[in-house]
């Protein structure tokens, strides 16, 4: 656990410091590069506007429908990756929209810096833990441990279906006495 704790401390520190040197103010670098690739690819698309929110985008592979209000594209990349695909970028640029506003908030620099902004607090050696626990237990202000209760798990009660009259009951047959209404294991007939 201490190894994980140290790794997390290092990771948070490295990511916090690295984000201070990034040039983009809107998206994290990986999302920024993906967005720039989509912008470059969208230049080869022809965009036709159907109404305020829907567009038909033609590329070399065929026609694709883009709905800007629902943030969806027929290719499915916008929904999966959370960033507008090249079809959506083409549609957004054709109507003068800012494509960066249509990226999911988890890709923004603000969200990234907020995620790694708080530091993982260092933890002292476990020798000091025992001293603090003893002080807390003596004062009565400490962490209360749960009560230990004995006993086995309680069995589950079977919820039986309500007999609505439509259900046909199966007729059971005893293999020992050849009578109906019971099984061999519950048979009381003499042998």
TrEMBL record:
One Pfam family hit: SWIM
Keywords recorded for this protein, A-Z: Metal-binding, Zinc, Zinc-finger
Domain SWIM-type: 64-96
Matches recorded under InterPro entries: Znf_PMZ (IPR006564), Znf_SWIM (IPR007527)
Domain of life: Eukaryota
Transmembrane segment boundaries: none
Gene Ontology MF term list: zinc ion binding
Keyword Zinc assigned: yes
Name the UniProt record assigns to this protein: BnaC08g44920D protein
Gene: BnaC08g44920D
